[in-house]
Write a structure and sequence with these properties.
By secondary structure, this protein is α+β, with helices and mostly antiparallel strands. It folds into 4 domains: 2-61, Winged helix-like DNA-binding domain superfamily/Winged helix DNA-binding domain (Arc Repressor Mutant, subunit A, Orthogonal Bundle), CATH 1.10.10; 74-127, no CATH class; 136-244, no CATH class; 250-351, no CATH class. The protein has helices spanning 2-16, 21-28, 32-44, 74-83, 88-91, 95-108, 114-123, 136-139, 154-160, 232-244, 261-268, 333-351, and strands spanning 49-52, 58-61, 124-127, 165-171, 180-192, 195-202, 205-210, 214-223, 250-257, 304-311, 327-331. Helix 2 (21-28) packs across helix 3. The protein is elongated and about 85 Å long. 24% of the residues are buried.
Amino acid sequence: MKSARLLSIVLLLQTRGRVPAAELAERLEVSARTVYRDVEALSAAGVPVYAERGRHGGIALLPGFRTDVTGMTTDEARALFILAAQGAHSALGLDDALRSALRKVMAALPAPHRPAAELTGRRILVDPDKWTPRPTSAAAPDGGPSGRGPAVELDVLHSAVFTDLRLRIRYRHSGETRPRTYTVDPYGLVAKAGTWYLVADRRGRPQLFRADRVVSATLTEVPVRRRAGVELAAVWQQLRRQVEDRPAEVRVTARIRRERLDLAVRILGGALTGPPRTGDGDGAGDGDDGSGDGTGDGSGDGGWATLDLAFPVLPAVRQLLQFGDSLEVLAPPAARRVMAEAAAALTAVYAADTPPG
């Protein structure tokens, strides 16, 4: 810890110039007395650092002194190259600058650290962008965590992708109670908008596995069998396109009360295929949808808005139940039946006078 603190002092002085001891102490979370002891240790080690007393004094390096990054540890070098995998640089037009900076950092790293840093850039990716808006069940592969039993620790998967051995995982798919067992050839890990995914080949075909659904992971003694010349970045782009370009199979028309429209747009934004239709002549709330006259709110056509929605599968329509009687599915008839059956099942749950037990 002391050696890391000494290096931090040198780097701070190198970038800031003269820095008061109190400020160094605050940044390093130590006392001012400890800072002065560290300065003495640096001076004894040959670093040209000195302290000036007085109102405008502080601790500084002799002009012209520069250090390099040879004090960087293996984990620090790996962390730097993981962060560099983010795609935000493209939006800022800094891709070329990033590549140039990484080449310089790689050249300045101690030789023993370079293989680990280079491999990390090929095994770990961080994609900060959210999935392209789609219906909820298609946007995030395999839905959310199941809550049935603990998932394997992320560091187990992290270690596995660097071993170049095949991995045997027990994986629980969305909507299933029992995990399945797969033997996969991992390319690496991807953090997509805060969710970690294992990217691997299964029987020679790329597949995504949500890390929080991997129940267990065990290394085999069989060498990994990746496709020749294929890296994590290319596999990830292929899988990402498959998810985001997945066509919606069910088109749904619904009407919603105007006072709930803003909320619906926020919640269902990924399922909307166009802007809500409101006003006269758009068919919203005109009484010809088969819903009878009991659903109006007395405000005429202006009380409703029409929504055009897309869902990957018919059962996904049930998420519209959260809007209660403020939303009605108009078409297709199959979607109306799904809503009616779900509403009937919900009514049966609450029909009893007292809850079970």
